[in-house]
Amino acid sequence: QVQLVESGGGLVQAGGSLRLSCAASGSGFSIRVMGWYRQAPEKQRELVAYINSGGSTNYADSVKGRFTVSRDNAKNTVYLQMNSLKPEDTAVYYCADFVGHWGQGTQVTVSS
Description:
The protein is mainly β. Helices cover 0% and strands 49% of the residues.
C-alpha cells in the first residue's frame, strides 16, 4: 500500500523560502514519477513540478527559476524547495505519483 505524507508547509513572508517534503511508503518509489501540485481557494488544482526516475524535472512557468524539485531515493522522499515566494503561491500543496496516489496536502501561506 502506497502512502504519501507531506510536511514543511507554513506561513512565510513574501520573498521567503520553504522546503516541502513528501515521504513515500511502499515499494517502487525509485521508478515512480513524482509530482507536486497545488490548489488555491476557488481555483483548480495545478501541476507545479515533477521529477522522473532519472532525475529529469519539469516546472510550471509560474514557478520556473524559483522552485526546485528533487528526490532522495534512499529515503523514499521527494522535495520541493520554494524560494522567492509570492502571495500568489499561497495554496495547499500536494505530492502525488503519477499512478493515482496522493498525499493529504500541506498549507503554504505567503503574506505580503
